Amino acid sequence: MLFHKTLVNWYLENKRDLPWRKTANPYHVWLSEIMLQQTRIAQGLPYYYKFIKEFPDVFQLAEAPQEKVLKLWQGLGYYSRARNLHATAQFVASELNGKFPENYKGLLKLKGVGDYTASAIASICYNEPVPVVDGNVYRVLARYFDIETPVNSSAGIKEFKLLATELLDCENPGTYNQAVMEFGALQCKPQLPLCESCPLSGSCLALKNGKISQLPIKLKKAKVRKRYFNYLVFISEENTTLIEQRLGKGIWEGLYQFPLVETTTRLKEEEILLEEEFISFAGKDPKQITLYNSSPIIHKLSHQHIFTNFWLIKKNKLPENSVSIENLSEYPVPVLIANFIQDYNFSEY
């Protein structure tokens, strides 16, 4: 079909030089695909190099402590990907003797591997004729065929998957899948697509109908939740502080943070002093308390915005489980806290 031949020819001339495109090693391809979920290549590439250097194969990743994996992942976001990555490495190493499943259905059973990732690995590494459908593919197909079905609806997911299957180059599925994704990333971009130089412009229905800026269509996202975090940054005369590990299934599971008091609104100093959780951490009469940031630091996640205050609390001594401030950098923490640690000069307090 002209469509897939055009895309493959474009790809061979325009593709970016990326390390995971030089191999069919499923460990390398899997690692890159997990890292690039909801992440730009420019952001993910340094992390890919770090992981390959630190963990050259799935056995070494499996043997690493989870905290080390989370620390290397720090700043990349969506930390459930890192936890799933580690769990899958342990499963592949211990249960499959280090060998990844060699087909779509087998790959789909791995933790953290969904339809898109399983299709990408199966087609690139094993030449299995299964189509990939990611954001770039949705955009290319929606525009080229002028499809108004919302891409994030049940009907849209089915429709685009069926269409992608029909368009697939079954003889060379790995190259074609990479071609259509790369085309969406570089040519048929979300904003300011390069329609004038597009090899498909002559038959693109959205271009013909003046609907490029309207497609693809997405259903509105759920309302963003607002949360108010008060981090208690204790500093003792012995230059130690307190940190705790986040447990449960919420955001940043397994990462470390300063003791946290979450409230329903932003609090003033006289209000934070009355919070029961604050008293349990700091006591009724902390030696000195100062608000580090004059206005809340807003950390935006996909479905929630976190309004953050860092409260500096001076204490003569802290419990035995306190940690040296010099060693804070060894712990995996959310980027919100990593930025605070980097910006704040503890020695001047």
From TrEMBL:
Cofactor dependency: [4Fe-4S] cluster
The keyword Zinc belongs to this UniProt entry's keyword annotation: no
InterPro entries: A/G_AdeGlyc_MutY (IPR005760), DNA_glycosylase (IPR011257), HhH-GPD_domain (IPR003265), HhH_base_excis_C (IPR023170), HhH_motif (IPR000445), MIG/MutY (IPR044298), MutY_C (IPR029119), NUDIX_hydrolase-like_dom_sf (IPR015797)
GO terms of biological process kind: base-excision repair; mismatch repair
A Pfam family per the record: HhH-GPD
EC number: 3.2.2.31
Catalytic activity: Hydrolyzes free adenine bases from 7,8-dihydro-8-oxoguanine:adenine mismatched double-stranded DNA, leaving an apurinic site
Alphabetically ordered keywords of this record: 4Fe-4S, DNA damage, DNA repair, Glycosidase, Hydrolase, Iron, Iron-sulfur, Metal-binding
Co-factor note (free text): Binds 1 [4Fe-4S] cluster.
Gene Ontology MF: a single term: 4 iron, 4 sulfur cluster binding
Membrane spanning residue stretches: none
Top-level taxon in the UniProt lineage: Bacteria
Chain ranges of the HhH-GPD domain: 35-186
NCBIfam families in alphabetical order: mutY
PANTHER family: ADENINE DNA GLYCOSYLASE
Summary of the function given for this chain in its UniProt record: Adenine glycosylase active on G-A mispairs. MutY also corrects error-prone DNA synthesis past GO lesions which are due to the oxidatively damaged form of guanine: 7,8-dihydro-8-oxoguanine (8-oxo-dGTP).
Family designation: Belongs to the Nth/MutY family.
Name by which UniProt lists this protein: Adenine DNA glycosylase
Organism: Gillisia limnaea (strain DSM 15749 / LMG 21470 / R-8282)
